[in-house]
Design brief:
Blueprint: E1 5-7, H1 17-29, E2 37-41, E3 47-51, H2 55-63
């Protein structure tokens, strides 16, 4: 298993860094959020953009998923 650095960025208007972080967390946890694009860097510093709104990339991610719970599964 390899280690990756996963980066999710968003611009948020807020009154403080804490409020900005909380707003970003709320957006990230919203099941209907379209904020599902990540930059992923491997151990060789190769950067790939992964868009989990893209059905092809979702299927590729699911085929490699080793978690007990599927984060893509609808409740």
């Amino acid at each position: 298993m390899e280690e990756y650095r996963v980066i999710w960025q968003i611009d948020v208007d807020a009154h403080s860094p804490e409020e900005a972080a909380l707003k970003a967390l709320m957006i990230q946890r919203d099941r209907d959020s379209t904020a599902v694009v990540f930059e992923v860097r491997d151990q060789y510093m190769i950067l790939k953009t992964v868009d989990l709104d893209d059905p092809i990339q979702i299927e590729k991610a699911k085929s490699q998923l080793y978690l007990v719970e599927d984060p893509f599964e609808e409740e």
